[in-house]
Each structure stands twice: as C-alpha cells, then as structure tokens.
Amino acid sequence: MNNLTIIFNAYHSRKSLLKVLINLKKYKIIIVENSLDREIKKEIEKKYPNVKVIIPKENLGLARGYNLAIKHSKTKYVFLNNPDMKISNKSITRLMFCAKKIKNFGVIAPIYRSEKTYKNYSNYEVKLRNSSFFIKNKISEVSWIDNNFLIDKTKIKKNLFDENYFLYFETYDFCLNLMRKSMKMLIVKKVKFKHYGSGSTDVKYNKIIILTRVWHYNWSKFYYFRKNFNYIYALTKIAPNLIQAIKKMIVSIIRLDKFNTYLSFIELYGIASSLLCLKSFYRPSHKNLN
Questions:
Q1: CATH class for domain 4-195?
Q2: Segment (H or E) for 44
Q3: Is the Cβ–Cβ distance between 120 and 146 less than 8 Å?
Q4: 82-137: per-residue pLDDT in tens?
Q5: Distance, CA of 61 to CA of 67 (rounded, Å)
Q6: Under 8 Å between Cβ of 121 and 144
Q7: Residues contacting 20, CB < 8 A, separation 6+
Q8: How many Å apart are CA 269 and CA 267, to the nearest integer?
Q9: Domain segments of the chain: what residues?
C-alpha cells in the first residue's frame, strides 16, 4: 500500500492511538498530535517505525491539522480519521480497490458497523446502479460525509479544508466545495468500521472537550451557513440553538447548577462570537479548570 497514507488528527489520544495502530503496521501513517505532547511522539515512533507524529506549534484543530498532514503525505491517496475507530486491513484494501476503480469522486468512505445512533454520511442517498461494480459493492452517492474518508490528492489539489474552522462543519464545507465542482461523495456499504464515538481523548480532559464542543459547534454552524449562503439564512439556522441555550441557562441558574450555567454561557459566547464575525478563537485551558 505504497500509494496510501492514513492520517489521524489527535488530542491526548495515546490509548486510542496505540490500540488502532496495532493492525495498521503495513501503512504509512501520519498523526497530528494537537496536545503538543512530545512523550506521545517518542513512544509511538519508537514502537511503530511506519508512523510519523507531527507536533505543531499550537493546537490546530481538525481543519488545519488535516491540511498539515495532507501536505506532509507523499502518497496519492490519504485516508483521514479520528483515533476513535477500528478498521481491518481487509476493509482498507477493499476501499482502496473501489477508489482506484472510480474515476470521478471527491470523497469515498466506509460506513459505521453500527448505525443505530448516527451515520457518518447524510440521509440523502442515491443508489448508483449504472454498473455491476457499484451494485456488488453497494456504492451510493450522498450529499456529505462527516469523517473517516479517503481522498485522491491529485483531484482535490488546492481544495483543502477551510482553516477558519477549528472543530465541526469543516467536513461539510469540504464536501460542499467538491460537490460544486461536480465531484461525488461516495459511501461503500460493503466496507465497514467500528466507531467508538467521543472516546479517543483521555477522560481527564473531558471538561475541556465539552466546553470546546459547545462553543465551536455553534460558531462553526453559523459560519458554515453564512459563508456558503448568506447572513440572514445563517440566522434562521442558528436561532433554535440560541433559544435552546438561553432556556438551558435559565434552568441551570434556577437549579444553582454552576457548571451547566457556565456551559450555557460558553454556548451563547460561541453564538455571539460567530454573529459578530469574530474568528474561531476559543481554546479552554486544562489548568484553568482545575
């Protein structure tokens, strides 16, 4: 698999990375470790010679982290992932086989082994029945793929991730840009992987993760719709989040729940920052939460 690099965007994900790397020894792998922990780099690179761990100067988030890893990769294909997953060599081989057979695609991805909670692709789905190959591998076209997908670098060229995003909606934006260039988003239902979901980061950083998510989800949601449509349309999309956050804050105050009151404040802070067209700047500190 000399023409494939597997990329992981990580944050304090030592345990998850060590677990997932065991079965991926024959691939080139690049990890962007956003925790800036050089001990993780030393341990992993010593144990796995096929792995390169990049320690950036700051926490880059998903969009900038993926762009950095893509630029460092030297293969035609890259497979972008978070560490909270498990995929077999057989599944990667099948995914690569499909990618090489299909000429016009922007993104191609496996699907979650279990889709009871959520999927990694849109509910809008078009069955592609123009060839026995598509039917056999259960390949469908969708409108977006959220994560864990493979791209051909020769096709995306300069259409990398928008680095204004730190977390959330960067993959939707990426897919939308490719679709506007008539490039298809494809899922291969014959290829499946296990997704643990929010389980890649060490539990002691849970508060940081929660605060980061509530701020950036709202900031990124408004930015996505403002960028790709217009400000007024973005307002209609963020309005339910704003109302819900206000309600949660009122209830938390009445119940004297300090943490959830603070959480609601951070959520509103993210919405306000995006409405004011400020940059995606919020980075909670672990030290300040202790």
A1: alpha beta
A2: helix 38-47
A3: yes
A4: 998 899 999 999 999 999 999 789 999 999 998 877 889 987 878 776 688 888 88
A5: 10
A6: yes
A7: 8, 83, 85, 86
A8: 5
A9: 4-195, 203-289
